[in-house]
Amino acid sequence: MPNVSTLTTEDPVLLVQLTDSHLFADADGSLLGLNTSHSLQNVVAKARAEHPRVDLLLATGDITQDGSVAAYQRFRQLTGPLCANARWLPGNHDYLPHMREAAVQSCLLDPVLDIGNWRVIVLNSQVPDATPGYLDDEQLQLLVRALSEAPDRHHLITLHHHPVAVGSEWIEPIGLRNAKEFWAVLDRFPQVRAVLWGHIHQPFDQRRNGVRLLATPSTCVQFTPGSKDFDVSGEAPGYRWIRLEPDGSLDTGISRLDNFVFKPDYSANNY
Q: Which of 14, 47, 70, 237 is the least buried, fewest Cβ under 10 Å from its Cβ?
């Protein structure tokens, strides 16, 4: 059974997405020269200042870089003040057993949430020890079941890996390997309004058959849009906010840190 919020079906839902934080067990850990804990802390502070009331926090994968329990615990500690109602999903850098340990006695890993007039479905596209994603039969069955059980709600689907081409040649092969099967399910259900993911460390906003397709900057380093090869830009870390309206429409935007200066240290090469 899905977890149910206290919002009524007539209430809008304010959602914040944080993605690809790449935390380490060591609070001083850095990715390509950027301290990821410090960066996340600043992004959370900005989100709190801009949105005093957040109804749902979605962490869409690569929460940690090293898969350590300590890193997940730090993420939970740093993001807790932003919103008590949160959901996590694993990315290719995450280690699910340690995620479960850090999420003990919580709803953080529950895959279905009814909130406002919406149903949020959280999928696990992780393939252990691999960078691309894949939705196994269990996840596809979960998706079908969750959609079938709530035909009158608007649906937001979340996963880590991109299910469409995003315009960066090096990124395309590390997306969702069975996107065709994923879309075959979604195309059966007209109540699907949006699909939200992480992984690509950059914003993305398009439509497919009326469904909004959204991705979001990382809370740490950013990938250069449209790049042929791996390339990190100097753009600031950020987050996405989404307002889910009772009628199934949504409003969304990206917010980035101010006065951010960063030059990637490729010599570290620890992505």
A: 70
**CA 244/CA 222 separation, integer angstroms:** 26
Given the structure tokens 């590390």, which residue do they identify? Answer: 174
Please give the pLDDT value at position 263.
Answer: 84
CB atoms within 10 A of CB 103: 18
Report the C-alpha gap between 78 and 93 in whole angstroms. Answer: 19
Span 229-264, pLDDT tens digits: 998 998 999 999 999 999 999 999 999 999 998 888
Instruction: Please tell me the pTM assigned to this model.
Output: 0.95
* C-alpha pair distances (Å), 7 with each of 10, 54, 191, 200, 219: 8, 12, 20, 32, 28
pLDDT at 38: 97
Residue ranges of the chain with per-residue pLDDT less than 70? 1-5, 268-271
- Structural element, H or E, at residue 73: helix 69-79
Spell out the domains of the chain, with CATH numbers in brackets.
Answer: 3-256 (3.60.21.10)
Specify burial of residue 137 (Cβ count, 10 A radius: 0-12, 13-18, 19+): exposed
Nearest to 29 by CA among 189, 257, 233, 220: 220
- Are the beta carbons of 71 and 65 closer than 8 angstroms? yes
> Cα 150 vs. chain centroid, distance in angstroms?
23
Write the pLDDT tens digit of every residue in 85-123.
999 999 999 999 999 999 998 999 999 999 999 999 999
